[in-house]
Amino acid sequence: MYDVIIIGSGISGATIARELSRFQLKTIILEKEYDVAMEATMANSAIVHSGHDPIPGTLKAKFNILGNRMYKQMSEELDIPYMACGGMVTAINEDQVHLIEELYERALINGLRSDEVKIIDQETVRSLEPNIADGVIKALHLPTTAVTFPWEAAIANIENAMDNGVELALENKVIKIEKLDRFVVTTDKSVYEAKVVINATGVYGTDVAKLVTNPHFEIRPRRGEYYVLDKDVRLVNSVIYPAPSEKGKGVIVTPQYHGNTLLGPTSEYVAFSEISKTTASGLEYIKENVAQTVQNIPYHKIVRSFAGGRATSSTEDFVIEESEVKGFINVCGIESPGLTAAPAFAKYVVEELVSVHFEMKPNTDYNPRRRKVLRTNELTFDELNNSFHDNQKYGRIICRCEKITEGEIVDAINRNCGARSVVGVKNRVRAGAGRCQGGFCQSEVINILARELKVDKLDIVYNKAGSNILKETTKGEQK
Ligand SMILES: Cc1cc2nc3c(=O)[nH]c(=O)nc-3n(C[C@H](O)[C@H](O)[C@H](O)COP(=O)(O)OP(=O)(O)OC[C@H]3O[C@@H](n4cnc5c(N)ncnc54)[C@H](O)[C@@H]3O)c2cc1C
């Protein structure tokens, strides 16, 4: 029997798992997909928001600020990419100037210090951002805005939690929960028992809550679509938000840690089956809206588009609470700024909600640090030369677009919470994330996965069971 079962391995489940691993608690994460963090956590803007935007007094406001302040340290401990690029909310007319003045006040109420938010004039905006649209007349400047790499943020939290004793069961969709003197959690593969269950299932939050309680909230998926620009485009230096509207933070231009630029997201309630689909109208909406804030966008440099679903709650706030069924904790409605807020609310969940059920003895072997990742494209020539001499796999480039070596791919497969699929490799080390989108390196990634996992190449999948890429051997090739 486990002490705690976490359902869901997005950034919420991942950060909660790491927090729990600080204590002597037997914990397991149950995840329905082939890999961790395959839903909202892998399809968002990657922004560590400053906390200027949420309505004061909400959980979003509270945990956004706290999370923003924790991100740098978490990124250092777990070796997660982190870019302190800053951000600005732009205004293109006098009404929007009033809006950013209101946001300025809101930011201070939410807890930003006076040196962490200021209104800047057109000339200053232009000096910071040469491609800002001509119509922008003022902006709210937010130096504590940053950018992370969301997949790695979740994966690193789970890897570190596993290094500290947490277990992970993938391809285990929770379909039934019974409350006896303990919880009996049935998945489509097995049965698990625990004293406490945490529901961190994103857009499926209400469905899973309904297995055991009568939730007071309803979660609906709200889709956001994006364009991704090639990494050789240096369009903006910081995150450029439009003035907010009733649709939320609006279409943002976001520089990514690895050099790409994101344009998006849109905002539209959709059916569950439509969450990850991009549409011609959505992408057209991005083009129309983004033109108000940024100009000179080279649309011929788009490398891909994607979409993700926000878990929007009927309560218009995060739902982070123990339900009326004691021991069943909901971490639901975690839409934006959930990626930012996760390290802060994970601490709250463990210290305030889980702790009432256990004597929280510290895990004396707990190590907050993840083993460093060797990213060869960030090394100096001498460092690269040394790592090549230590291990020649770090001298063999597999992904030419992103310059990812065999050594990095092998490492990503062989860690705790390691890659098992082609997309798993891409999400961890970015092999296949560049201009050719895996056109050149995919076959070699399949070879490496098969060799390291000691399975047949035909068994290697793209991203989920049944998505095998190779169907049969040809020309008498040996298995
Ligand atoms: C378009 C968009 C843009 C965003 N931009 C930002 C941003 O820039 N900054 C920011 O701070 N936040 C942003 N967010 C919000 C952020 O992405 C989310 O708050 C966060 O990823 C939610 O994480 P989660 O773990 O709660 O949910 P998810 O990542 O969705 O994870 C839920 C997990 O539960 C699993 N699961 C579901 N049902 C079951 C079941 N029955 N059994 C087992 N497993 C199950 C799923 O497979 C999934 O892995 C954005 C979100 C979207 C969609």
Shape: globular
Secondary structure tally, helices: 12
Helix content: 25-40%
**Distinct small molecules bound, one entry per kind:** flavin-adenine dinucleotide
Q: Mind telling me which CATH architecture of the largest domain this is?
A: 2-Layer Sandwich
Low-pLDDT regions: none
Please state the CA-atom Rg, rounded to the nearest Å: 22 Å
Strand content: 15-25%
Query: Briefly, what CATH class of the largest domain?
Result: Alpha Beta
Integer count of domains: 3
**Major sheet characteristics:** 8 strands, mixed
Question: CATH fold name of the largest domain, please?
Answer: D-Amino Acid Oxidase, Chain A, domain 2
Question: What does this entry show, briefly?
Answer:
With 479 residues, this protein is α+β, with helices and mostly antiparallel strands.
